[in-house]
Amino acid sequence: MKISVVGTGYVGLVSGACFAETGLTVACVDVNQSKIAALNAGQIPIWEPGLDDVVRRNVEKKRLSFTTSLCDSLADADAVFIAVGTPSGENGSADLSYVLQVASEIGKHIGSYVVVVTKSTVPVGTSRLVKQAVQKELDARGAKVEFDVASNPEFLKEGNAIEDFLKPDRIVIGTESERAQKLMEKLYKPFLLNGHPIIFMDIASSELTKYAANAMLATKISFMNDIANLCELVGADATLVRKGIGSDPRIGTQFIYPGAGYGGSCFPKDVKAIVKTANEHGHPLEILKSVELVNERQKDLIFNKIRAYHGGTLKGRRVAIWGLAFKPNTDDMREAPALTVIRRLLEHDAVAVAYDPVAMREAKKYVGSSVEYAHSAYDALKGAEALALMTEWPEFRVFDYAAAKQLMKTPAVFDGRNIYDPAEMKEHGFAYYGIGRGKVVS
Question: Which residue numbers are catalytic?
Answer without folding.
Answer: 266
